[in-house]
Amino acid sequence: MSKANIGLIGLEVMGRSLALNIESKGYTVAVFNRTAEKTRAFVEGPARNKKIIATYDLKDLVAALESPRKIMLMVKEGEPVDNFISQLVPLLAPGDLIIDGGNSFFKDTMRRNTMLADKGILFIGTGVSGGEEGALKGPAMMPGGQRDAYNLVEKIFRSISAKAYDGEPCVDYIGPHGAGHFVKMVHNGIEYGDMELIGECVWFFKNIGMEASEIADIMAEWNSEKDVLRSYLIEITADSMKQPHQGSDEYLVDRVADITRMKGTGTWTVQSALELLVPIPTIAAAVFSREMSQDKGLRLAMSKAVPISFEFKAKSKKELIKLAHDALYISKISSYAQGMALLEAASKAYNFQLNLGRIAKIWRAGCIIRAQFLDEITDAYETNPDLPNLLAAPKFSRFVVKNIDTLASFIEVAHRAGVPALAMDVSYDYILQLTSRIMVSAQVAALQRDYFGAHGYFKIGGKKKPEILQSPEGKAREFHTQWLVAGRPETEITK
Predict the structure, then answer these.
(1) Strand pairing of 490-493 and 478-481?
(2) How would you label 406-432 residue by residue, b for 16+ Cβ within 10 Å and e otherwise?
């Protein structure tokens, strides 16, 4: 019997779909699941008469593979990944490869990479995006690990990945150790932001009296071929909002409980941003909004305890739809700029050597945030790889400068209509802070910290010279005011 080209562990929805995808591209796949019944059901059902070999013991799985062996884990992040790795290591030889295709935390991936490298075993942490459909028909894939490890599976990954409109596979080598899982984590964070921003637009439309079917038509229009908002998330919003609720004359969206659950990647993104000192307020707002949604009982109680009401006199519907459209686009630019800034900071901190334009190109198809907009991001970084921030790209900066008042106006009318436009609001504020020559709030806080804690402060040359004063050696000069001493003398702090 011929050997399998690759092994796959974990036959939940993603694992089953990925195994079928790999087999459909001409490869033989050996599969294993901790629960034998699932393996049996898979090979006797969807995988029947296909080049998929069932194994019921890890020794048999390893024995079924050609050398060097390639084994992909599609199991829950955390302890399950470590458990399977510990069981596989004694069965493998130097040069064999383990691939973690789950949503693992990137620092776990870095730890596992180091541990396995010491044993001569290759390891790739691979972000896989696209859900069940993507896994089956072609996901976007973000592999990070040793370059030699990626070379072993590059042909398979390019075969099974999604293809963009220009035929380019939506996969590329991301970088060393945890780079792939970090990029997938940020992808998910951006996804949170996109979903919240779209949700705020829908909430606004509902609060000004639109029915779900009318909102679905607006979303479908926004998903038209030449629209800057065209994307998978806009597409499925349009499709799902016109879905009737079975057994009633209502729409399903009006009967779905207002609770959004999450698996943790959005929270990890925010935590990583805090560690790296990178502001990502839109993604954070999306995470906080999901957290607020989960306490339904509290919200119901508070709606009675604090019965706020709003009176909103709408302008023409056409004007409001255009206002929401452009506000969503500006907020999207802001949100992606935050995500890209986080990727750039992580690349420097962890030596990931990320290519932001190439990452945006991978996201053009297969993944959840796939969108026409990503072509513009790719072009921006290909034109200028040293962009200080995505907002500095000429196409985006021109639109933002011309239309920033649109976002401010949308936030205002949304609030008047009783809609908490949390993500829209901080997307706007991010742009204002990022483009501020002088942040007065930071000046005040610096003085406060020096006053109560003698923490010191830096100085600038004045309103017309907002640059930090520097010593001849090129270091920022630091000062302290003796607030409790008569005359409050200022001294320069030398270190």
Answers:
(1) antiparallel
(2) bbebbbebbbebebebbbbbbbbebbe
Query: Burial letters for 356-386: b for 16+ Cβ neighbours within 10 Å, e otherwise?
Result: bbebbbbbbbbbbbbbbbbebbbebbeeeee
Per the CB < 8 A criterion, the answer to whether 138 and 365 are in contact is: yes
Q: Three-state SS for 99?
A: strand
Find out whether 482 and 488 touch, Cβ atoms under 8 Å.
yes
Q: What is the CA radius of gyration of the chain?
A: 26
Respond yes or no: is residue 184 known to be catalytic. Answer: yes
C-alpha neighbours within 13 Å on the C-beta side of residue 125: 29
List 23, 77, 191, 478, catalytic entry:
191
| pLDDT tens column, 175-193 | 999 999 999 999 999 999 9
The one-letter amino acid code at 158 reads R
Of 203, 247, 239, which Cα lies nearest the Cα of 223? 239
What pLDDT was estimated at residue 464? 87
pLDDT single digits (tens) 283-319: 999 999 999 999 999 999 999 999 998 888 777 899 9
C-alpha distances in angstroms, 207 versus 413, 417, 473? Answer: 11, 6, 59
Q: Which of 184, 242, 332, 361 is catalytic?
A: 184
pTM of the model: 0.94
CB 443 within 8 A of CB 347: no
**DSSP H helical ranges for 223-264:** 232-241
What one-character DSSP code corresponds to residue 122? E
Write b or e for each residue in 85-100: b if 16 or more Cβ atoms lie within 10 A of its Cβ, otherwise e: beebeeebeeebbbbb
**Does residue 407 contact residue 428 with C-beta atoms inside 8 Å?**
yes
Neighbouring CB atoms inside 10 A of 160's CB total 26
Active-site residue flag, 191: yes
Q: Are 338 and 280 in contact (CB under 8 A)?
A: yes
Cβ–Cβ under 8 Å, residues 393 and 382: no
Closest to 406 in 3D by CA, of 414, 394, 416: 414
Distance of CA 463 to the CA centre of its chain: 38
